[in-house]
């Protein structure tokens, strides 16, 4: 049984609509000509009225067309010279201006960095506003949504009254260490406010690697591990936002596409790479990074717990080398004696060497099936490697008195 059309709609007659529209246009044209006929003295003679109006209408349409084309052309030129490179791309870009750099050189570098469409535009604007000689050296966090005027305002802002402070943030330091050092150097005004920024990190979603951290509720500080250690220059009394963006931007430039591709080969996310790198950074010295990495990779492959003491130290905020049985059982998403595989997040801010160690572990240790490493000298960071648990226990028992003596000497 066919169902009746509930609304009983009639078939639309498009030809009738077309005819009605044509009739409307014709009547409207006639009314317009009659109105002009009264004005021009031609009365109801629409043909004669049109003969008078036709040349003027052609002139008017041509004039409007020229104005439209000219306006569009000017708009295109102005946008190409002074508009933003990409109104949708807010990815922060760290841009460095060295001392003595000319406006021409800076303009070329800005174009190379794809922050402006044309170096000519910013040079013209700088000359027109007489700021070509006011370029300030330093590091700036810019983005591609900024107009040429916005960028020029930032890089020519006078800083003569601000003191420049050089700070070296060392690999293996935590965000708490960073906060204390930055405060002591006079860069930031408050340790607590800086740490709150690192914990919440909501203002830094423009960085592709920060946003996924919001969904991980197990992290002590969302930005732990992502503040790249290096030597920086800051203005005294800088805002937390400026400092953090500079450190995040540095990581953004260090962690290249090549790293991402290699991590994909290893089936690791960036967060897992940074987390493992932080463990490696705390467990040994540079010459052992790739070997320690290989041990971790072997343990992960076998489904073993990483059992890294430094994760317990981070969870408990202690520095003791000799940990008690109860301490090793601490319930924490960071404790690799409790959780299997890679812990919740980084335990410090690793450097480039530690990151590369995760991505390119030592082949001899990796292929040799080594599953354990043991600190033998706390002062030099020397490490011994073993394949079996029995070998590991033997080395551990041998050097435990050394660790206890070190703890005592350090007051731990």
Structure write-up:
The protein has 412 residues and is mainly alpha-helical. The protein has helices at residues 14-40, 46-82, 103-112, 119-128, 148-155, 175-184, 191-200, 240-254, 257-265, 270-283, 289-301, 309-316, 325-328, 352-359, 363-368, 389-410; strands at 93-97, 138-142, 164-168, 231-235, 372-377, 382-386. The chain has a two-stranded antiparallel ribbon with strand order 1-2. Strands 3-4 form a two-stranded antiparallel sheet. Strands 5-6 form a two-stranded antiparallel ribbon. β5 (372-377) and β6 (382-386) form a beta hairpin. The longest helix is centred in the N-terminal third of the chain and has 37 residues, at 46-82. The model is unreliable at 1-9 (pLDDT under 50).
Low-confidence stretches: 1-9
Q: Quick one: how many beta strands?
A: 6
The structural class is mainly alpha
Give the helix tally: 16
Shape: elongated
Tell me the strand order in the biggest sheet. 1-2
Overall average pLDDT? 86
Main sheet, how many strands, which sense, barrel?
2 strands, antiparallel
- Helices and strands, in order, run as HHEHHEHEHHEHHHHHHHHEEH
């Amino acid at each position: 049984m066919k169902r009746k059309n509930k609304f009983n709609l009639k078939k639309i007659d498009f030809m009738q609509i077309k005819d009605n529209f044509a009739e409307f246009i014709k009547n409207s044209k006639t009314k317009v000509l009659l109105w002009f006929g009264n004005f021009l003295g031609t009365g109801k003679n629409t043909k004669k009225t049109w003969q008078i109006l036709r040349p003027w209408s052609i002139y008017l349409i041509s004039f409007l067309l020229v104005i439209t084309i000219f306006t569009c052309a000017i708009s295109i030129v102005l946008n190409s010279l002074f508009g933003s490179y990409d109104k949708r791309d807010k990815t922060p870009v760290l841009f460095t201006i060295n001392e003595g750099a000319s406006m021409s050189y800076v303009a070329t570098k800005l174009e190379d960095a794809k922050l402006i469409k044309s170096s000519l535009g910013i040079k013209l604007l700088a000359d027109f506003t007489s700021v070509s000689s006011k370029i300030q050296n330093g590091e700036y966090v810019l983005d591609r949504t900024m107009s040429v005027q916005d960028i020029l305002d930032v890089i020519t802002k006078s800083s003569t009254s601000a003191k420049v402070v050089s700070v070296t943030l060392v690999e293996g330091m935590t965000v708490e260490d960073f906060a204390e050092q930055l405060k002591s150097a006079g860069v930031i005004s408050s340790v607590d406010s800086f740490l709150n920024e690192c914990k919440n990190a909501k203002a830094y979603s423009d960085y592709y690697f920060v946003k996924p951290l919001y969904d991980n509720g197990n992290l002590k500080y969302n930005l732990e591990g992502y503040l790249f250690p290096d030597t920086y220059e800051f203005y005294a009394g800088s805002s937390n936002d400026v400092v953090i963006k500079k450190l995040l931007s540095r990581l953004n430039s260090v962690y290249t596409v090549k790293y991402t591709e290699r991590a994909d080969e290893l089936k690791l996310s960036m967060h897992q790479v940074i987390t493992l790198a932080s463990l490696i950074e705390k467990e040994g010295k540079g010459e052992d990074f790739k070997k320690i990495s290989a041990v971790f990779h072997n343990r992960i492959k076998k489904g073993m717990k990483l059992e890294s003491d430094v994760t317990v130290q981070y969870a408990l905020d202690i520095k003791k080398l000799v940990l008690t049985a109860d301490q090793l059982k601490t319930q924490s998403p960071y404790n690799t004696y409790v959780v299997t595989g890679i812990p919740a997040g980084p335990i410090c801010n690793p450097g480039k060497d530690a990151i590369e160690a995760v991505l390119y572990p030592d082949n001899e240790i990796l292929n040799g099936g080594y599953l354990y490493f043991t600190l033998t000298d706390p002062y030099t960071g020397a490490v011994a490697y073993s394949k079996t648990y029995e070998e590991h226990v033997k080395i551990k028992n041998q050097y435990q008195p050394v660790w206890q003596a070190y703890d005592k000497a350090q007051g731990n």
